[in-house]
Amino acid sequence: MPASSPPETTVPRHTALVRVTHWLTLVSFLALLFTGGEIVVSHPRFYWGETGNVHTRPLFTIPIPASRDTVPTGYGYVMPDQNGWSRYLHFQTAWALVLTGLVYAVAGLWTGHILKNLVPEPGSRNWRAYAQRIAQYIRRAPPALSEARTYNVLQRTAYLFVILVLFPLVIWTGLALSPSFDSAFPAAVDLLGGRQSARTLHFFVSAALLLFLLVHVAMIAVSGF
Amino acid sequence: MTPISRRKLVTTGLAATAGIAGLAAADRLARRYGLIPPDSGGAYGPGETLTYAAQRLLTRHSLAREFPRSLISASPFANETEPPSDEFKRLQAGGFAGWRLTVDGLVAHPLSLSLSDLHSLPIRSQITEVACEEGWSYIAEWIGTPLAEILRLAQPLAQVRYIVYFSIQSGWWDSLDMADALHPQTYLTLGMNDGDLPVSFGGPLRMRVPRQLGYKNIKYLVRLTATDSLKRFGKGLGSASPEAGYAWYAGI
């Protein structure tokens, strides 16, 4: 008599919509990061306030050679200038990111995905829940079976922060760099403290998103893809 | 394979048809209202078209921010340009008395204006920011005559869609759609801050377009041409910028 086959376990997956928008967002973000970094190379100096140029004191500089010889980097050479296609691709990809994000946001709210999977569950919306989960990570205690089918409070908070804070901020600060957009919505740049503040913030928010990406991938690698 | 229900097939088919029809209609409207930029071919065309169309729709009449005098930059940066040609040096030696701005193309009254002719037109000033695509910026006061004043004299014909403008430096030219050409902040600039426009900043005559990035603000203007089609100029992409890999529309 053959042994009975082990009971089948079905693992819930995100909907196709969540999965497709997730990967589209990743590809868009990587293109934006790469082209954005390339654009920084043409002027690796950051300022604060409304204006800033090589004649004014920067907030900080990135110690790399620039792709324009008008920037005093201290290096004796100039990087190849790739701003043309980088800017074209940066802005085209920005559209892809925003349109994907809109589809995700609308569908996510409509289907209840955001409420069910990303908003911290009732009962975990307090400091104790966070402290407990952090302690569990520090102890490297394996997750309970009930935790395997859902995001824990730290994951939910992190994802919500990326979706509701970091991405909107990077888009806002980016749009604030458009002279045309500023003419229609001057508050967009004035609220950030001026054009150069918007540029510096855009850089730091992008860096925060990159940091999230690295930690996100590392954690998935550790727990198994 | 799970069978697709008839309902799903019909609904998807209707959605796809509606989508395609919608895109076709959007394309017709975009062409009719001049929302397609001249560099819309190529791999970056869709993004460029979306950006230009969206910004054109949002910013037809909006004004670039103007700042108080106290924010005029103490140290503006004059970006590098090619060394001046012999022709420029000759004109400079004569105090630019021989400088002429030719206005031609599809206009009822072609013009050839000296700097003193330009000074006799209504002169305005704006304290606006120059933002370079590299990321740096400065604020200055720009004194000049609105391009709209020149066009009022030259009388572009009804079919004109763009004003093309040329520097004395060969190969350096650009163009504006009529929304920007007629915009009250688009100037032919003669003065900067406390005096005449310095040569390093584009003197004696520079285009000022504060709602677009610095590279549209071409220095050492000698000619304006009104046209109904940008295909007649250079490679037909709207300006020297796409020919160098940069977008024609620099509002972003």
Task: Please outline the helices and strands.
The complex is a heterodimer of chains A (225) and B (252).
Chain A lengths: L15 H25 L4 E2 L13 E2 L21 H28 L2 H6 L8 H12 L14 H23 L3 H6 L1 H5 L4 H29 L2
Antiparallel strand pairs in A: 1-2
Chain B lengths: L5 H27 L12 H14 L27 H8 L7 E5 L5 E3 L1 H5 L4 E8 L5 E10 H8 L7 E6 L5 E5 H4 L5 E6 L2 E2 L9 E3 L12 E7 L12 H4 L9
Parallel strand pairs in B: 1-10
Antiparallel strand pairs in B: 1-2, 3-4, 4-7, 5-6, 5-10, 7-8, 7-9
Q: What report would you give on this structure?
A:
The complex is a heterodimer of chains A (225) and B (252). By secondary structure, chain A is mainly alpha-helical. Chain A has a domain at 31-111. In chain A, 60% of the residues lie in helices and 2% in strands. Chain A contains 8 helices and 2 strands. Chain A is elongated and about 75 Å long. The model of chain A has no long low-confidence stretch (mean pLDDT 93). Chain B has 252 residues and is of the alpha+beta class. Chain B has one domain: Sulfite Oxidase, Chain A, domain 2 (Alpha-Beta Complex). Chain B is 28% helix and 22% strand. In chain B, the strands form 2 sheets. A 5-stranded mixed beta sheet of chain B has the order 2-1-10-5-6. Chains A and B meet through helix 2, helix 6, helix 7 and helix 8 of A and helix 2 and strand 4 of B.
Number of domains of chain B: 1
Strands side by side in the biggest sheet of chain B? 2-1-10-5-6
The structure class of chain B reads alpha+beta
CA-based gyration radius of chain B: 22 Å
Shape designation of chain A: elongated
Q: How many β-strands of chain B, per DSSP?
A: 10
As a percent range, the share of strand residues of chain A is: under 5%
User: Would you list the SSEs of chain A in sequence order as H and E?
Assistant: HEEHHHHHHH
Largest interface: A-B, 41 and 41 residues
Low-confidence parts of chain A: none
Distance between the termini of chain B: 48 Å
Using the coordinates shown, work out and report the CATH topology of chain B. Answer: Sulfite Oxidase, Chain A, domain 2
Shape of chain B: elongated
